[in-house]
Amino acid sequence: MKFACLFLALMSLSVGAFAQRVMPNIDLPPESAYDPDRPPPSFHKQNRERFLSMLPDSSIAIFFANDLKTRNNDVEYLFRQSNSILYLTGLYDEPNAALLLSKFPMPFQNFATTEILFVQPRNALMETWTGRRLGPEGATQKLGVAAATIIDSLQPYLFNELLKTYRALVKRVFISYPAKDYADSDGDYAKLVKTIDARLREDKTLVVQNASPLLGQMRQIKHPIEIDLIQKATDATIAAHLEAIKSCEPNMREYELAAVAEYVFKKKGCEYVAYPSIVGAGENSVILHYNSTRKKILDGELVLMDMGGEYHGYATDITRTIPANGKFTPEQRAIYDLVLAAQDSAIAQCKPGNSFRAPHQKAVEVIAEGLLKLGLIQDKADYRRYFMHGTSHSVGLDVHDPGMAVLQAGQVLTVEPGIYIAEGSPCERKWWNIGVRIEDMILITETGARVMSAALPRKAEDIETLMKEKGIGNLAIK
Ligand SMILES: [Mn+2]
Fold this sequence. Notes:
This protein is α+β, with helices and mostly antiparallel strands. Helices cover 36% and strands 18% of the residues.
């Protein structure tokens, strides 16, 4: 609907009706002013400088913003910036942008610079419809980049200036692409990305490579500003899980618990879910990434809730599994306590210098041993039938962030063992449809680890106690 209106407005403009439209004032608060705890320009500047210091000589790097994505017809998904642009510039709210970094000073207008940000031009009509734009002037003022111009200049600048006059200085081009599905888009911005990529690759004397590994390496160790934002996402999500746990009762739908959690973490400042909420009851508790959340939660079932908010671009990832009626059955409790023991042992492995695999290896040991004792498997190697995923992944701008081989202070990772016994599994029926995952957020410190989500109860008895309380999901809504 909104673009039909935009079309009409453009028609009006063409006959002059809107020609004198007033430009929204750049001194009005841009969106970043509403959230003063967004990382400051100095953080992004430092990241650009660090990236440049890692960049090989005779190299340039191009980082593309994300594109808008269609949900259906003319309705778009909420815009999410590309990680590279977020990390290197702090340009949160605008698509159609690119950052060019260079190991050597590039000529730009009448000076030389190692960084140029290409952004959308100011446009009174478009800004009235789709939001304020910084424009090149705003980009230098508000984001602190040394140079900025309009995105339409990117291709001519790159090919007619930089790679023409200064060709001898450029041997390598690193590219960071928009989120993957840009390749399927035939929009102008996606075409620009594809054209630049193809034109660079045409020149066989240039080495074109993906910038993501270098950037990923930088993103593994979190800056205190990032840790603070991940903690805020985590605190908001702890509050969200607490309300969902207290609210749970038989005959609710799975989506009601997701709605409670999403309300709470958004109320506490998260702009979005870090990933689609997983709330699976009974037979859905054994599906690792179950998202439909339409089922009615029945008395006696387990409910697995894997839900996390994204705060100013930073994710968190927390899972709790609870008994729908507030009391675990003996079988549910046995599996729950086993997963909890595995998680405790795995968390104890989280310290600097340990292998990233160490927590997983410990979790596997505990779970294999426990399943054997419970008679669920006859051979330890069969643990994979019920625990089929890894125990840890890094978390940062992505909920599955670039990881590392050895744990180091400043890394953030999850510890999330699980046991999932699907209906029809080769074990007694009483175990069927028991799915348990317990997931917490861990910060590796100089001396060990800090559980960032420690304020959310994990022990079975603490969860049962908490479930005696009511939550906001139990309020009657007309
Ligand atoms: Mn996870």
